[in-house]
């Protein structure tokens, strides 16, 4: 293998097959006024993980926190759905789901903790499986060898590259971009009580763009790690983090995925019993 690690289409598909968008419509007065008299569609980056046999959509906690604040201010959310168009071009509408922010969601949004999880019902998971979406398994998120996978890749949907319609199909151009781990916190990102991971966005790694773009909207997207070359004949990867924030220049902050998912293990066991339930 060459000195430079290049992920080809098949490699990237293994990462993309975990990625989804959560979407909903806001028909509140403020949203309609802001959107030229029409309801406004929201879109969030997320990914699917298997925790103790339970399938969860994982995203950034501030997304759910912001939505609850919006509801308090008059937002009217409806038409929740999962969009799997990153992986599948099947032409069907986004899969409708029921989301109750008080019942179906666990999230943290406090001083560096930025985690959110939504429980996928079996029918939603079956529909996603048929489109090629599969949960990240424990072998990828709960391993002890994360330092052996230092080539980081962030997946998400920048709002800049999306035309979100309240009715009919939306147009989305998702991005997969290489990010380089940083040892120290960039000055443009706030110091938080709880530790976070930091990285520099390598914009030139996006061949079809090749220069700085606005990554706003990628919050909640997964950061995967792969080995540096030579990797060998078998492609392997690990889930590293969850995109949280950026300094609007070139640096991002993310929350390590493993501590949150390990904490969810206890929650799932307390609700579903020691064995969890099947994701089949």
From TrEMBL:
This is Trypsin-like peptidase. The lineage of its organism: Bacteria, Pseudomonadati, Pseudomonadota, Betaproteobacteria, Neisseriales.
């Amino acid at each position: 293998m060459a000195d430079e690690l290049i992920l080809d289409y098949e490699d990237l598909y293994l990462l993309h097959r975990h990625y989804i968008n959560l979407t909903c419509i806001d028909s509140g007065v403020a949203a309609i006024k802001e959107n030229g008299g029409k309801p406004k569609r929201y879109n969030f980056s997320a990914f699917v993980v298997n925790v103790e046999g339970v399938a969860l959509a994982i995203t950034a906690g501030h997304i759910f926190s912001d939505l609850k604040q919006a509801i308090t201010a008059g937002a009217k959310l409806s038409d929740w759905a999962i969009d799997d168009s990153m992986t599948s071009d099947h032409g069907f509408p986004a899969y409708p789901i029921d989301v109750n922010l008080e019942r179906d969601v666990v999230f943290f949004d406090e001083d560096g903790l930025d985690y959110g999880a939504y429980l996928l019902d079996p029918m939603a998971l079956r529909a996603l499986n048929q489109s090629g979406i599969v949960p990240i398994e424990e072998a990828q998120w709960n391993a002890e060898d994360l330092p052996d996978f230092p080539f980081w890749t962030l997946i998400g949907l920048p709002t800049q590259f999306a035309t979100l319609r309240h009715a009919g199909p939306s147009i989305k151009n998702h991005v997969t971009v290489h990010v380089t781990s940083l040892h120290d916190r960039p000055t443009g990102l706030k110091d938080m009580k709880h530790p976070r991971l930091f990285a520099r966005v390598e914009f030139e790694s996006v061949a079809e763009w090749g220069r700085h773009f606005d990554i706003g909207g990628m919050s909640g997207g997964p950061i995967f790690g792969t080995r540096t070359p030579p990797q060998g004949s078998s492609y392997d990867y690990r889930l590293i983090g969850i995109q949280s924030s950026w300094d609007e220049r070139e640096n991002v902050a993310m929350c390590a995925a493993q501590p949150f998912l390990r904490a969810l293990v206890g929650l799932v066991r307390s609700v579903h019993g020691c064995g969890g339930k099947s994701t089949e």
